[in-house]
From TrEMBL:
SUPFAM superfamilies assigned: Clavaminate synthase-like (SSF51197)
Stated name of the protein: TauD/TfdA-like domain-containing protein
GO biological process, one term: antibiotic biosynthetic process
Domain TauD/TfdA-like, residue spans: 33-313
Keyword Cytoplasm: no
Disordered: annotated span: 1-22
Keywords of this entry: Antibiotic biosynthesis, Iron, Oxidoreductase
Length: 322
């Protein structure tokens, strides 16, 4: 056994939950991450996600250092968020703002940018009183579960993300693009295949067509990789959607998704996709100090509704050009 890696940590495999890697009694979480990096990567290659339990993470700086030890190039920032996160320390970010009472359906992070993060890290610094798990789902299994005709259409057309940046909900265009300079935003859009148009009142409308199915860059397996259901208008709370339609019209929603050639995606299709996710979801209740590592290309993640205080911080790493 290599002295560099140390002995392998116990891996707990149970149906219905992600693999749980035991790091019980790790007095030095950063050192543990350094010594077990290869082991964690091997588990990710086999299973697509792993929950590391026993690191006792409480401090933001230590948590960021643990995540960085498990990456190839350190933690990276976020581009084009649909809701602004809070930047913390050393590349660490807050979880996406989302009402505690609402489920966040499964999705692959930043699937609409050309170089999404290969890995996602979620660390629980304080566990909620009830609920609040971060479920995960295998994109290869979800792809197999969807109707072949629907898969063929998405394979052929891809999907279209339509956004309207305004002051009512979600990130402003300045927050999403990290600048208040219109010229810089236009340059970014042209460079990344994003159609754009400015409203007379200063709002911004964008459309970007992306692939819905990709091959994993390491093993080549086809994966359902997108945010078709998550960024659909049908994912909005019904009362919120009704209010926004009344205020801005059906074409003025802050975000929605369409088939790649522009046809609307109905609520029935979104329900079908979410049903496939549900059938292939794994979850484990958070314990304070846990770290969940996710292969973002292969594995979707979400968030359960919860009660009580919940502090989960996020890291993104190793962008991969898709």
């Amino acid at each position: 056994m290599s002295a560099t890696l140390g002995p392998p940590a116990p891996l707990d495999l149970q149906a219905g939950r992600p693999p749980v890697l035991r790091a019980d009694g790790a007095a030095d979480p950063v050192g543990w991450a350094h010594h077990h990096r290869t082991e964690v990567r091997q588990i990710l290659a086999r299973h697509g996600s792993v929950l590391v339990r026993g690191l006792g993470l409480r401090d933001q700086a230590v948590t960021a250092a643990v995540m960085q030890r498990l990456t190839s190039g350190g933690l990276t920032g976020e581009r084009e968020p649909f809701a602004p996160r809070t930047r913390l320390v050393d590349g660490l970010q807050s979880a996406t703002p989302w009402p505690a009472s609402q489920q966040m359906c499964l999705h692959n992070e930043l699937s609409y940018v050309p170089d999404p993060p290969a890995f996602m890290f979620f660390a629980c610094l304080a566990a909620p009183a009830r609920g609040g798990a971060t479920p995960v789902g295998d994109g290869a299994a979800v792809l197999q579960a969807l109707p072949p005709a629907l898969v063929a259409r998405f394979e052929r057309e891809g999907w279209l993300l339509v956004r309207h940046y305004n002051d009512d909900i979600g990130a402003s265009w300045a927050e999403a693009f990290g600048t208040g300079d219109r010229g810089a935003v236009e340059q970014y859009c042209r460079a990344n295949g994003i159609e754009f148009a400015w409203d007379p009142d200063g709002g911004l409308r964008t459309r970007q067509r992306r692939r819905a199915i990709v091959r994993h860059p390491v093993d080549g397996r086809p994966c359902w990789f997108n945010q078709v259901a998550f960024l659909s208008e049908w994912a909005l709370d019904p009362d919120v959607r009704e209010y926004l339609v009344e205020l801005h019209g059906p074409d003025g929603l802050p975000f929605t998704t369409r088939f790649g050639e522009g046809e609307p995606i109905g609520e029935d299709v979104v329900d079908l996709i979410n049903g496939a996710y549900t059938a292939h979801t794994l979850r484990e209740p958070w314990q304070a100090g846990d770290l969940l590592v996710v292969d973002n290309i292969r594995t979707a993640h979400g968030r359960d509704a919860y009660e009580g205080d919940r502090t989960v911080v996020v890291g993104m790493a190793d962008p991969v050009r898709m």
